[in-house]
């Protein structure tokens, strides 16, 4: 362990040259023995210190184990328990019922659309903010962070006000004479999509912005001086170098949107059933918990698979991005 | 810096597109402000009659205030639990190498990647039969679990920019470990700890889903009450509460900007779910 050098006290004793056999200590073996004793002391000190460092993490581990690992393990065991003991019926039911399959389909479709929409919207914002002067950039980032610090309930409520049948957008459209009847903007797929994109967009912008800032500004400039158009310089030089940030944003947004509950529950109005809302209604309505547990475990497996897959893609992408730069 | 190689026209296009998109992000939140001062329960922008009636409705409602108090209690408890526990773990991991550090970090970061809905259901299934739901301690412990990754990451980042030899020097000069940490290391990693504590507070105060499962009745938190209310009606009282919450978030951000706690850099990590 590297902690040896952190020890203060025994440092003076080790200064003694163990090879100094002609010293005033009389017997030649005495300093030798003392040296060995010191090294043992060192080793045990190092071990103690290393153990102490690991021990510092125990309270946090206890909290996470009690409130996360234990519930997940419990969920896993519950998912295999049916009316007559251990069974796979809970999982068979998920894949047997067309309704469940359509919930899964909606969930995946929504997650994919939200991730793509966030990506398309985040790139121009992040790129523009990375180009403007430091003050304007700071202000923009503060606005974006403020948005992500504001409670998701507040933001969802804002969209309810805007999109509702007698909400602000419909009122404006009707006042302007653009539509005769109020449009159905919320309590459907569109409403959920808008709300989720709004909720998750900051999480896409910030990592991409961070990655763009790290790109050497001279590279696209050099490309342009060699005749590339700025657009081409962006897509072939700047963007590939920012891919790690892009991938990080995509991972975060897609993982979060797969398990998203609040926005579909509030802006979907019961019309858009995603996996998370299906789990909650199963907990609320089913007398046995096996079904909800199995649905939960399936969501966990999907999320973890996605994370593992994305990590792999990210790895390959960064490698390509780096290669492209050199 | 303004990049000269991009023509002015192109830059104007890009900047107006980006500006429009930032408006899409922020405008809805700012729209709530005038709506909360509306005198009628009908949605009109701008409101035709102005009043404070929705604020009065909030402050006079026993259940809203009770929910707010519970939320504050849970959030303070979460800060008190998650900050020291997460900071200690970050310190321990910072001085540990090898697979054990990787495994422990993996476990401590896991709450970020598990869908919250699962956490809520799981905690409910474990603690409901034990009659432990509906207690503020269970809520604060769940929120601490959710907040630990944020404290862990921010404090670890602070430690990485701190030169650990300083602490070693203090120890070699005779300070014991605790004194060396408290007088040398702690003052220098304080911004990271403060940011972590801010994030822990927000994580707990805004959390809906676990609260939905773990609390009920007189112990319902403010976000849970808001969620249940929004499921049924568009009550303008929510606009008043939302304005207060958004103002709170803005104040928090302003304080962290002024104290250089750096919420502006890492605040986005508090993923809203």
Features:
heterodimer, A: 326 residues, mainly alpha, two-stranded antiparallel ribbon, 15 helices, 2 strands, B: 273 residues
Outline the structure in words:
The complex is a heterodimer of chains A (326) and B (273). Chain A is an all-alpha fold. Chain A has 15 helices and two strands. Chain A has helices at 11-14, 29-55, 58-79, 89-96, 98-131, 134-149, 152-163, 168-175, 189-214, 218-225, 230-241, 243-258, 262-267, 275-285, 290-325, and strands at 81-82, 85-86. Chain A has a two-stranded antiparallel sheet. In chain A, strand 1 and strand 2 form a beta hairpin. In chain A, helix 5 packs parallel to helix 9, helix 9 (189-214) runs antiparallel to helix 12 and helix 10 (218-225) packs antiparallel against helix 11 (230-241). Chain B has helices spanning 8-36, 53-60, 62-94, 99-109, 116-127, 136-160, 165-172, 177-205, 209-214, 222-232, 236-258, 263-266. Chains A and B meet through helix 2, helix 3, helix 5, helix 6 and helix 7 of A and helix 1, helix 3, helix 4, helix 5 and helix 6 of B.
In short:
The complex is a heterodimer of chains A (326) and B (273). By secondary structure, chain A is mainly α.
